[in-house]
Amino acid sequence: MSSVTGLSMKQHQDPPKKENLEQQQHLYHPHHPSTSSEYIFQEGKVCISGKDVEIVPSYRFLGVQLDNKLEWSTNTDAVYKKAMSRLYFLRRLRSFSVCSRMLHMFYQSVMASTIFFAAVCWGAGIKAKDANRLNKLIKKAGSVVGCRLDNLDEVVRDRMVLKLRTIMDNPSHPLHNTVDKLRSSFSNRLLQPRCSKERYRKSFLLSAIRLYNSSKPSQ
């Protein structure tokens, strides 16, 4: 199944995606509307060969469930379901008197990798109730393992700051120039880009900059 993603644009701008679709149709012929789906962040329709493309509320892309409001509830449901099945096996291992060290290794490699997959992408924009669901699941796993495990907020914070530092140190990264222009000339902090929408404020870049600045001593 193919996907067509509609991006939010200003009202006075004509969306160029129809022209792009026509170009793609010639490059990757045939482009079947019946096997394509579209999820959008604003109202509008896409036509391929004179047929409307079905609009879907969510779409799975690179292992992450994206919804048209970027609220991540659909992704949280999928993550929670997978993690619950892993928790079952973690409990089974404990029933066989497996040592705490091995249980912790199993959690990190099998369960935590599921819960925190692409957390840099959705960690800052997740709803509070969804974050609580995952934190309760992590707490249950901690009781099985027999030690305290890092919660969602801690993992997301560390990974976001680490990812931002990686971008800053890698000139070939697509976001390197964007972040480099935000460096303050008076301190080692980053300037916060202006934004008007809460959805953008909770995106990776702005959230990572806030966390990065909070980790720096004020001057």
What brief labels describe this structure?
7 strands, 11% strand, globular, 2-oxoglutarate-dependent dioxygenase activity, membrane, methyltransferase activity, Alkylated DNA repair protein AlkB homologue 8 N-terminal domain-containing protein, AlkB_hom8_N
Number of distinct helices: 9
In total, the number of strands is 7
The average pLDDT score comes to 81
Sequence stretches where pLDDT stays below 50 over 5 or more residues: 6-16
Domain Alkylated DNA repair protein AlkB homologue 8 N-terminal: 72-110
Protein name: Alkylated DNA repair protein AlkB homologue 8 N-terminal domain-containing protein
Pfam families: ALKBH8_N
GO molecular function, one term: methyltransferase activity
Give a description of the structure.
With 219 residues, this protein is mainly alpha-helical. The chain has one domain. The protein has helices at 17-27, 73-95, 100-115, 119-122, 128-145, 152-169, 176-180, 198-201, 204-214; strands at 2-6, 36-40, 47-48, 51-52, 54-55, 58-61, 64-67. The chain has a 3-stranded parallel beta sheet with strand order 1-2-5, with no helix packed on it. Strand 6 and strand 7 form a beta hairpin. Helix 2 runs antiparallel to helix 3 (100-115). The relative contact order is 0.08.
